[in-house]
């Protein structure tokens, strides 16, 4: 693959603008790389919708937000990838859509903790009765965006310019769908039935946004779910061969890899169908594996890579009867030494390192129109 001198210059210069010697984001605040960011997804992206729509507990109570300095409704001890991306491109944190006191001119976050890609109808058709705690699927989040859109721009030309230059995240999403499927089906059945349906829903959401004027879209993939303390607790196996060298469940990770491969294919198909749109896959999977492979490089404790910082005890410090933020759970002294915050979500340092890889990968790709898969 050959690049022009301008493209190569972008690869060389943009990372220097984004990061200083200490790794902090330094994109010039007076000239954001995008006019706005719009984010769709689940708990890996929600910046406050869940605590408004469902319940402020536990995510708006200590110890959530302890590293940031206060609880913010985020499912972590601090910030999420979308926060670091926003800061990295010169924009403020993306406000939750359900907080009607916010100014959405520079973006809105529609993600909700616990959200699924698929509507409840799909699960009922598959005889899966594991109900979602609320109706905040991708189709609902898209409807919220459509409700907001008239207030963002007026004319076709204005909307085309504003939305066409804005950055859209569709995901991470799908993990909650797979947990629902696994409550009634085997891993292989989930892989065969649920994964293609989830990917089709994500692709359909991206296509709908393109039809609304979006031209810069990032599709974050799935984490290695078999490495999450919650999954390791819920699906223990007496067979040592079911675990890989990191101690993660092989079959569950294979499910996540299949999700990511289909999502990459969908990104490529959308780029072919809409050649004027810049669409990139953003990887969660490999960065998390890097944390497990060489934890010391990121400041993590090798003995706690699969142990939640905040939890209620057990081999992986995950106890659904004493979930982080509820009685019986306690937080570790230094979250920066842990990969996992509460057994499901990651710590701020983990999210920060993931966001840094995105800023010089898929974000750079959609900003400058560079090839990226």
Give me the secondary-structure topology.
Elements: H1 5-18, E1 37-40, H2 49-53, H3 81-88, E2 107-109, H4 120-125, H5 138-152, H6 156-165, E3 167-170, H7 175-182, H8 187-211, E4 216-220, H9 229-234, H10 250-273, E5 278-282, H11 285-293, E6 310-311, E7 330-331, H12 348-359, H13 362-368
Parallel strand pairs: 1-2, 1-3, 3-4, 4-5
Antiparallel strand pairs: 6-7
Helix pairs in contact: 3-12, 7-8, 8-10
GO molecular function: hydrolase activity
Protein name: GDSL esterase/lipase
Keywords: Glycoprotein, Hydrolase, Signal
> Which overall shape is indicated by the principal axes computed on the Cα atoms?
globular
User: Separation of termini?
Assistant: 13 Å
Spatial ordering of strands, largest sheet? 2-1-3-4-5
- The whole-angstrom Rg is 20 Å
Please provide the count of β strands.
Answer: 7
String of helices and strands: HEHHEHHHEHHEHHEHEEHH
Mean pLDDT, as a whole number? 92
Give the low-pLDDT segments. Answer: 1-23
Discrete helix count = 13
Tell me roughly what share of residues is in helical segments.
25-40%
Largest sheet, strands/sense/barrel: 5 strands, parallel
Query: What structural class should be given to the helix and strand makeup?
Result: alpha/beta
Estimate the strand proportion.
Answer: 5-15%
